[in-house]
Specification:
This protein has helices spanning about 5-25, 25-35, 40-170, 175-194. The chain is mainly alpha-helical. Among the domains are: about 5-90; about 145-194.
Length: about 190
């Protein structure tokens, strides 16, 4: 592109050339004069417009367009970052849901194991309590049987003593000591064998 001093010099040369040509009668010049158009002024304005357009393009539009491109790039980056963040958030939520699901499954398994262990413990305790109760019942029955035998033995002894005492009274008048002892022993043997 041309610099400003070069453009100004070119503009001046073009203006001189148009004035030189304006002196010679040209059909375009004659046509422009008929309609009241000053051809050198129009050409100068066209050149000035081109210069102003170039300056505006170079120092105004180009930086503004660069700023707009930069902003669009930042916006695109921000949108891409937001999408990545959303994807990461979705991924984290899925991982969290999977972890929660695994934790629930593990908790259910632990609860089930605890229930089984509790049931097994209750069954063992019930079995042990039943066994202890059976032992207690067995011991109680044995104790009752021993007590019964003891009471029967005491009752036999008492009955034998009463029979002997009664027999002694009845027989004391007619029997001697040796016969009484023999009857007593025989009565005691019969009572104990019953």
């Amino acid at each position: 592109m041309l610099s400003l001093p070069v453009l100004a010099e070119v503009t001046g040369q073009v203006a001189e050339a148009t004035t030189v040509h304006a002196e010679s009668v040209n059909p375009v010049t004659e046509f422009a004069n008929n309609f009241g158009v000053n051809l050198p002024a129009v050409i100068g304005q066209i050149i000035n417009f081109c210069i102003v357009a170039y300056v505006l393009w170079r120092f105004a539009f180009k930086p503004v367009l660069a700023t707009l491109d930069e902003r669009q790039k930042k916006i695109a980056d921000g949108l891409r970052y937001a999408e990545e963040t959303k994807a990461r958030l979705d991924s984290a939520q899925q991982e969290s849901a999977e972890t929660l699901k695994k934790a629930q499954v593990e908790a259910a398994a632990i609860i089930e194991q605890a229930r089984k262990a509790s049931k097994e413990l209750a069954e063992r305790e019930t079995t042990a309590a039943t066994a202890r109760a059976g032992e207690l019942i067995s011991k109680a029955q044995q104790a009752i049987e021993l007590e019964k035998q003891k009471m029967l033995a005491e009752a036999r002894t008492e009955i034998a003593r009463l029979v002997i005492a009664t027999t002694q009274r009845v027989l004391s008048k007619e029997l001697n000591d040796a016969d009484r002892t023999r009857y007593n022993e025989a009565a005691a043997r019969e009572l104990t064998s019953v």
